[in-house]
Amino acid sequence: MSTATIIDGRKFSATLRGRIAEEVTRLKNDHDLTPGLAVVLVGEDPASQVYVRSKGKQTLEAGMNSYEHKMSAETTQEELLAKVEELNNDPAVHGILVQLPVPDHIDDHAIINAIDPNKDVDGFHVINSGRLATGARGASAPMIPCTPLGSIMLLKDHLGDLSGKTAVVVGRSNIVGKPMAQLLLQESCTVTIAHSRTKDLPDVVRQADIVVAAVGRPEMVKGDWIKPGATVIDVGINRIEIDGKNKLVGDVATAEAMEHAGAITPVPGGVGPMTIACLLANTLTAASRQNGLKEPNLL
Ligand SMILES: Nc1nc(=O)c2c([nH]1)NC[C@@H]1CN(c3ccc(C(=O)N[C@@H](CCC(=O)O)C(=O)O)cc3)C=[N+]21
Ligand SMILES: [Mg+2]
Predict the structure, then answer these.
(1) Would residue 16 count as lying in a domain?
(2) Where is the Tetrahydrofolate dehydrogenase/cyclohydrolase NAD(P)-binding domain (predicted)?
(3) Domain housing 153
(4) How far is Cα 271 from Cα 10, in angstroms, rounded to an integer?
């Protein structure tokens, strides 16, 4: 029985963060510019607190400024919009991320679309999704959502040219599924977006040279759904309890999938670390663009 190559996102992201740190040093020395990332966290969700702490730490390690704004779970939409406006107008802040999900009484679309699109390092603003969908370049190039961007980097590193490959994205969220499909299309893949209502999902996935699982259901994609030799990108981060112990698992049944796939991203240590590295990359890109400087080539 063959076994899949593990795609090491932790290692790739460390290299990428190293490149980002070098570029930050260059910006500081040559242009007296320190990129700044503001992260806004509303409420006390423990998982969100962990991510925000991790982002803050890695932002500082890359030599950038990190600004954390913690707001109570009772924050009103008006108060959060006022915070976003303050950050839009702060020249030291080049990137703004409002940690999702926000509490139910706040309309997340309204918040996302209040962020200056050029500071929208998550790439969730409708202007950025429009720019991505239309292939805008140069001064109006999109900020690209971090998880799909990191996933494409891993795919291209492993496979080289993706042109002509069949890709199935399982999941249709605005955050991962839809932008991932756009990026794969841009790489000239033949793209299918599958979801909870897709008929014969296992057979649809079996067509794919590239499988991207982004459904948020623990180990939903089974090993025998994977075409022999396919490349599997597991975007899921699910906390489950097994024998009284907390465990992190993806959306793919990894152990079984290893028997079929050519290569697969593990959870943890796959896409997750790439997401944060790409957030830093986007912050660097945003700072460069906002100051009329050439964008660094990070790969
Ligand atoms: N506006 C916004 N932008 C986001 O990008 C965003 C968000 N809201 N809300 C929450 C999700 C989740 N997310 C992760 C980032 C890194 C890891 C990560 O580094 N994971 C590690 C370890 C995870 C662990 O041990 O808990 C890994 O997979 O190896 C996971 C998840 C970003 N998100
Ligand atoms: Mg099998």
Answers:
(1) no
(2) 145-290
(3) 146-272
(4) 8
